[in-house]
Specification:
This protein is an alpha+beta fold. The protein has 2 domains: about 1-135; about 140-235, Calcium-transporting ATPase, cytoplasmic transduction domain A, CATH 2.70.150.10. Helix content is about 55%, strand content about 15%. Strand 1 (about 140-145) and strand 2 form a beta hairpin. About 25% of the residues are buried.
């Protein structure tokens, strides 16, 4: 029983850990920003700011936010990649330090890293969207052959084959309803929470969920050509 309980909590724990990881990624940028603001305050609000103090403050901020970029640039050099963006950012920001513009060097590196974080966040959202779409694709379908049910993988089903979907199951392929009627949950595809009623001959799509009765339908598109598969392709190619 304890094992089942732990298994049930695994997805929630994984989601919590993923959220913590995303937040931790912003900590270096936040610390660097605080040091940058503190250094600027010391520089402009102090009558005679000490250059060594400024160098130490801004250097710490630079290492926190830009250390990974500098290491990436050095690794790129060992691979013969002399003009990638990390190398160019390193040269530009260290050049600012060399001429005494410490704050500018930190600020440029900070803006670069924040941009990278936003880009990674967008990429992660896209990956989660792709995973959500993948989760809508059933791994099996009930095909009727001479009136006998047979469980197969949806990618083996041909156009005009007859598929049966029981209450609570997902529609595995696009098709036209053969049964007199069907009630389907389309929220995962359309975002609409109100169930849709389909009559005989009307189109249903892969990813819809059958709600209240056994339905049969004739397949109109192969597994790789369903509307859901096409949406997934567009998301992956975007």
């Amino acid at each position: 029983m304890s094992s089942d309980h732990n298994h049930d909590n695994a997805p929630a724990a994984s989601l919590h850990a993923s959220s913590e990881t995303r937040y931790r990624a912003y900590i270096p940028a936040a610390l660097a920003l605080l040091l940058l603001l503190g250094g600027l305050a010391y520089q402009h609000l102090t009558t005679n700011p000490n250059d060594w103090v400024l160098l130490i403050i801004f250097s710490i901020a630079y290492i926190i936010v830009g250390g990974g970029v500098v290491l990436g640039a050095l690794k790129g050099i060992t691979r013969g990649e002399f003009f990638d963006e990390k190398f160019l950012m390193t040269i530009a920001t260290l050049g600012a330090f060399f001429i005494g513009e410490y704050a500018e060097g930190v600020a440029v590196m900070l803006f670069y890293e924040v941009g990278e974080l936003f880009q990674q966040a967008a990429l992660n959202r896209a990956k989660r969207s792709i995973q959500a779409l993948l989760d809508l694709r059933p791994e099996e379908a009930i095909i009727l052959r001479d009136g006998v049910e047979e469980i197969v993988h949806p990618n083996t089903v041909q156009i005009n084959d007859i598929i049966r979907v029981k209450p609570g199951q997902q529609v595995p392929l696009d098709g036209k309803v053969i049964s007199p009627e069907a009630t389907l949950n389309t929220a995962a595809l359309t975002g609409e929470s109100v169930p849709q009623n389909k009559k005989q001959g009307e189109q249903i799509l892969a990813g819809m969920i059958n709600l209240d009765r056994v339905i049969d339908f004739a397949v109109t598109a192969r597994f790789t050509d369903t509307k859901l598969a096409n949406v997934l392709k567009m998301v992956q190619d975007a």
